[in-house]
Amino acid sequence: MTDQPYSLNITTSDGKYTVQQLVEGRAIVLRYGEPWAAYEGKMLSNLELALAFDLEESREKLDSQRIEFMAAIKFATSAECEDAFTFLDCWREGRADVDSEWADWQQFRAGYLTEIRATRTSS
Question: Which of 43, 72, 80, 111 is deepest in the core (most CB within 10 A)?
Fold first, then answer.
């Protein structure tokens, strides 16, 4: 193992496989947390690295969308929201009602995302 920073560190198959790419460019493949002999001293192909980076990016996008969805649900069920169903329809379709409720949502969302980021950086 190394203490060097990674440009990629992704685990899949319930922890069975991990691909780590060091900032310097060298990649390490682990199986069950141990160096995988099949990849010892071998370079990963561009395809393997591209798939790993795409998986990491997809997970980050999904996580971001999940947080956004949870914020919308939390707002819709709060006292600040007058009509939860209309708000959620507008939110889902990406169209904003031009009213104070949408402004309240934007303010609520900003605070919620700040709270989530603070929680993640402290843990």
Answer: 72
> Alpha-carbon dihedral of residues 5, 32, 39, 53, nearest 10 degrees?
-50
Q: With b meaning 16 or more CB within 10 Å and e meaning fewer, what string describes 86-122? A: ebbebbeeeeeeeeebeebbeebbeebeeeeeeeeee
- Classified as helix, coil or strand, 20 is strand
